[in-house]
Design goal:
By secondary structure, the protein is an alpha/beta fold. The protein has eight helices and eight strands. Helices cover 42% and strands 11% of the residues.
Length: 307
């Protein structure tokens, strides 16, 4: 799959350029604001296009190197799209609530993930010996952990890059990533604080169409990175030093060897002209019928005696 193409028209159709009311803005976003229309800030999409492309290429390079991407979007408008996009491209997500220490206290989170897997196995297997109340309590605990950790249960370690939809709501996630030196890619609205974001993407973080566009592009970049990783790890048979050689048998001693001309360029033997008057040689040429029948009978007798 090829890298997604970021176009000005596509961003406009998704409403990426619409910011918040002029009363709700962060002065740190002033360099990314194009102007004001009906008391609403309009984001400069001419900056969004190259910044989005840079972020997508970063994700692609991380995945091509075998890295992990964590999608983070816990707001109601983004939760479903974040989970769907991350699951589709085989990455990880947090879409319910960011637990404090989810990155900085990974050891504790790992223990909770193990507990979640154990409860899954217990509820899926034999629950004999447990009362209905105990099963209900276990199910509720499992659902609670699954909402918080279900998207990262198979991550196996810290991510190499995180993609955030709303920098205000996911402020804790950005702070933890900065402490650990994990690059942050984030959609920054006109009221956002781009501090701590290594790859800011100026854009609307509330419109459903815009959020869907961000998630689809990130998933496509992940797919392209996976394709690049598979291509890099593929075995090139033509590059192998020692290839098996087929030894052709020497047919110089076969009857009638050299009597049939070679075929050149895929031409059939029938297409090769035969000189007029030439006599085609045969293994039995010059042998009369009586002698030939005697030879066949002798071969049969020899075979019967050998058996």
């Amino acid at each position: 799959m090829a890298m997604p193409e970021v176009t000005l028209r596509g961003l406009l159709e998704a409403g990426v350029h619409f910011g918040h009311h002029t009363r709700r803005w962060n002065p740190k976003m002033a360099p990314y604001i194009f102007g004001v229309r009906n008391q609403v800030h309009i984001l400069d999409l001419q900056q969004t296009v190259p910044l989005m492309d840079r972020a997508l290429r970063t994700v692609r390079d991380v995945v091509a190197g075998g890295g992990r991407v964590l999608f983070v979007g816990t707001k109601k408008a983004a939760a479903d799209y974040v989970a769907e996009a991350a699951t589709r491209c085989g990455q990880y997500y947090v879409n319910h609530r960011w637990l404090g220490g989810m990155l900085t206290n990974w050891k504790t989170i790992t223990g909770s993930i193990k507990r979640l897997k154990q409860m899954d196995e217990q509820l899926a297997g034999n629950t004999t010996g447990l009362t209905k109340k105990e099963i209900l309590m276990l199910t509720r605990e499992k659902e609670k952990l699954d909402r918080a950790l279900g998207g990262i249960r198979e991550m196996g370690g810290l991510p190499d890059v995180i993609f955030v939809i709303d920098t205000i709501k996911e402020k804790l996630a950005i702070e933890e990533a900065n402490k650990l030196g994990i690059p942050v890619i984030a959609v920054c609205d006109s009221n956002a604080d781009p501090s701590g974001v290594a790859f800011p993407i100026p854009g609307n973080d509330d419109a459903i169409r815009a959020i869907n566009l961000y998630c689809d592009m990130m998933a496509a970049a992940v797919f392209d990175g996976i394709s690049a990783e598979l291509s890099a790890s593929g075995m090139d048979v033509g590059a192998q030093a020692d290839l098996p050689t087929d030894v052709m048998p020497d047919d110089s001693g076969l009857p009638g060897a050299g009597a049939v001309p070679e075929t050149l360029g895929g031409a059939e033997v029938a297409d090769v002209p035969v000189l007029e008057g030439a006599v085609q040689s045969s293994p039995t040429s010059g042998v009369d019928r009586e002698s030939l029948e005697q030879m066949v009978q002798n071969n049969r007798d020899d075979g019967n005696n050998a058996g």
